[in-house]
Amino acid sequence: MSDLASSRQGYAVTDLTIGHVIRDKAAKLRDAQFLSYIPDGRTFTFADVDRASNILANGLMALGIKPGDHVALMMANRPEMLFLLMALGKIGAVSVPLNIAARGDQMRHYLSQSDSVVLVVEEAFLAQLDDVEDALLNLGKVVLFRESSTAKEVPDRVGACARLQTTDFAQLEEAPDSAPDVVVKFSDLAMLLYTSGTTGLSKAVMFTQAYALLYGIDQVENYGFRSSDTVYVCTPLFHAHGLLSHTYGPLVLGAKVALSLRFSASHFWNEVRDCGATVLSMLGSMANMLWSQPPSADDARHAVRQATIAPAPSAGVQFSERFGMNILGAYGLTDYGMGTILGPDEFPRKVGSAGRPRPGMQVRVVDENDMPLPTGEIGEIVMRSDIPWSTSLGYYKMPDATLAARRNFWFHTGDRGYFDADGYLFFGDRKKDAIRRRGENISAFEIEQVLAKHDAVADVAVFAAPSGVGEDEVACALVVKPGMTLSEAQVIEYCGKHMPYYMVPRYLQFLPDLPRSATHKVEKYKLQKAAAERIDSFWDREKAGIALRRR
């Protein structure tokens, strides 16, 4: 048996339960700091984290929650949110972290599809439940968290929750701090994490106790994290990126985490400097927003050693030079795990790449028949793990989707890319983001990468628009940097110089901001819907009489 299959970070895979790891770290690193909360300055040692999660675990059991029960959580990035997730793991219950921006049909889907019996909700989000009372009736109880109060009385107005038994969060904190007497196995279901659902109903990915921890272990081992690192986290704890990669990973390693309430481009670097962060991780969209900020003499004044950016920006060398840090890349999905890594020693030689397959994971690029494609040819990225229990169990209550994704015993990512001659993966686009225009397959991602380099462009999204002749036209939504101007004709001229003629957008739209999910992903389906319904509101290159030179 390989080391990867038998032991990770000193733990046998069969010992990888959330409770066991927290207790072990508290015993070994008792008074060492694990967590700092940037908004209010609170800090927590490993022993504090163990004790706080024990208290909430016992409080949840006193509320009637049993092993296997599903508990939905709708809270912002707070220590209490993290302690709740840990507490549920300790008692063998299944946590269901919800996107805090959800409302309406999406919220109704979360609460009903997840089979949650209890909802823990922050008072600030109560109004988002007012129009989903039918889904709330599936719940047995609601626990209300209030940021600025320790009162144990439930407020007079709890909106749509009024018909349910409602308990104040402070009551959970009255429980004893002894370790809960519950046997939890590494293979038990630990959490459901919902995918973004930008093209349809969100799917709930099933994480076992082991997979939740291995997801983070894969990150820290392959990125070269150190136990002396401070990892800055500003992405949501309801997302694998923030919770598993950069909170649970450092937990297992014994490193520090500095938790922010949310991502803010204007406050980002000040927080990074103040908390002493040495490691960052961000989505490509976040990096684009930081890049679009006016350059400052303080840009490289920090302690950061490395930053992971996914997808890796094509301007990674310039980003690295401006902000004074090494840039790492990766390719992976919540649904299955990390596939490839561009590690600390491979930048800038392979800038823009997502790296090579990591140990324990096979990665291929295949055609529509699942046949491997040669070097340099774009196809669908598929993955297969060599290590038991190191991937998800599939999609909750969606067996057909689970089987379809694992066709021919390979996980089908729905993403396209290619391998170069050195075995490095380069991301192409989402299959559903591919644009078919007059016989040419066009990558929206490639167009976005070109336009993102324009001095006046702060943000960009490229998507398919209806052509009326059976294929697509290329549409583009742009956000211009403050204080700068950019015309449609200038955009077309720039595109004509930097991309093939057939990729140049026909339709353009300037927006103050792009629609984004709470995890900062561009919600292209909203842009596509607007194009389908109101294409006449877009600027049209052909109507403007601008002809492209074929070359």
Structure description:
The strands form eight sheets. Strands 6-5-7-8-9 form a five-stranded parallel sheet. The longest helix is centred in the first third of the chain and has 17 residues, at 46-62. Helix 2 (18-28) runs antiparallel to helix 3, helix 3 (46-62) packs across helix 4 (79-90) and helix 8 crosses helix 9. The model has no long low-confidence stretch (mean pLDDT 89). It contains 16 helices and 28 strands. It folds into three domains: 18-30 and 41-184, 3-Layer(aba) Sandwich (Rossmann fold), CATH 3.40.50.12780; 209-430, Rossmann fold, CATH 3.40.50; 435-540, GMP Synthetase, Chain A, domain 3. The radius of gyration is 24 Å and the shape is globular. With 551 residues, it is an alpha/beta fold.
Strand content: 25-35%
Name of the CATH superfamily of the largest domain? ANL, N-terminal domain
CATH fold node name of the largest domain: Rossmann fold
Residues in helices, as a percent range: 25-40%
